[in-house]
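Figure 3 (text version): structure tokens given as input.
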């Protein structure tokens, strides 16, 4: 003890003083300490360093206020209570059941498109592809979250419903953020990693499906089973891999792996666009602010309603789901609430939205909107 203060408190004051210019200090009950500090261009990076050093001492810092009135509070670290809930497990099992049902439907369709394809191969290829994409998304997001010093979110899988979601066995996941990230940059990186990993995996699996596709005897214009046109990314892959694929022109080529990968493109699309409660809702809030993000979300819903509703029920399902969740805010939980997300990440998110648009099937037509 020194002057009535514990050694840990003295050490906290010493560490904070080495990182920041302290304007004032207040000792709170329970051993917490509040500092008024000067904010400058290097505060974001120094806060990350401070977080690492204080964590070793059993304390957690948080930065609140504004750049002109910056408050640093250091509290004793508390172990987050594990909240046990069966809802994530139930939704995951429902999504797995949905994948199985859609895989069986895939087999029924392939009985006409490619009668020679063994039924069990179609079911296993399609189901394994979709499960692999969802697993890649989940594991990728968990890996990057832990690497960035954040606790991975609890994912609520959204199972598909036959007819309502067309051939989509899942609409992706809703992330439930339980623990704060260090700052907005790391929160952004953790949120965007899942959809991008899913998109990258979808590109690889679609290429595999393209190369291993089977020639069907049905012409492209005669097929009644094409629910979606290819997306821009799929069109580019088809064009690039055409010399390896071969086949007769004008005839349909089918692949359950490519069909499963198409689900991955749409799951990545849903995860990246600015829809509240999805990863894209968090990303838009960070890049543009909550008000602009909410406006962008409603514009996105409107566009999904307008684009080709008569051709694809999935757009309609995504829109309805987004509307049901539109009133729910997307809280950005960070310890450093003062520092903004970097400009480089704002630009990167615009590029991610472009990738999302390129993952959406090219619409055949536009739905008409009755005016009265």
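Below: residues designed for each position.
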């Amino acid at each position: 003890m020194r002057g009535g203060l514990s050694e840990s408190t003295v050490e906290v004051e010493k560490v904070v003083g080495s990182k920041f210019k302290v304007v004032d200090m207040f000792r709170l009950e329970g051993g917490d300490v509040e500092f008024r500090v000067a904010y400058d261009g290097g505060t974001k990076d120094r806060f990350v360093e401070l977080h690492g050093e204080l964590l070793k001492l059993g304390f957690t810092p948080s930065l609140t206020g504004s750049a002109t009135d910056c408050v640093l509070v250091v509290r004793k670290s508390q172990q987050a209570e594990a909240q046990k809930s069966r809802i994530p497990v139930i939704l995951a099992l429902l999504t797995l059941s949905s994948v199985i049902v859609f895989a069986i439907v895939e087999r029924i369709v392939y009985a006409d498109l490619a009668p020679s394809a063994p039924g069990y191969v179609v079911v296993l290829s399609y189901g394994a592809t979709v499960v692999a994409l969802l697993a890649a998304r989940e594991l990728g997001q968990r890996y990057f979250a832990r690497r960035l010093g954040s606790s991975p979110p609890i994912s609520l899988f959204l199972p598909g419903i036959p007819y309502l979601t067309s051939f989509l066995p899942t609409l992706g996941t809703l992330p439930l953020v339980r623990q704060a990230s260090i700052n907005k940059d790391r929160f952004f990186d953790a949120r965007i990693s899942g959809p991008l990993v899913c998109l990258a995996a979808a590109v690889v699996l679609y290429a595999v499906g393209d190369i291993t596709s089977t020639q069907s005897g049905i012409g492209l214009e005669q097929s009644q089973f094409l629910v979606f046109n290819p997306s821009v990314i799929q069109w580019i892959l088809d064009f690039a891999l055409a010399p390896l694929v071969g086949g007769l022109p004008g005839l349909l080529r089918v692949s359950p792996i490519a069909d499963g990968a198409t689900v991955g493109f749409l799951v990545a699309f849903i995860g990246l666009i600015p829809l509240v409660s999805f990863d894209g809702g968090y990303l838009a809030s960070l890049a543009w602010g909550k008000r602009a993000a909410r406006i962008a979300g409603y514009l996105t819903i409107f566009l999904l309603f307008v684009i080709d509703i008569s051709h694809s029920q999935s757009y309609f399902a995504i829109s309805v789901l987004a509307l049901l969740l539109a009133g729910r805010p997307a809280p950005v939980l960070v310890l450093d609430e003062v520092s903004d997300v970097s400009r480089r990440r704002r630009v990167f998110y615009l590029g991610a939205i472009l990738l999302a648009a390129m993952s959406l099937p090219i619409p055949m037509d536009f739905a008409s909107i009755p005016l009265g």
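DSSP finds eleven helices and eight strands in the chain.
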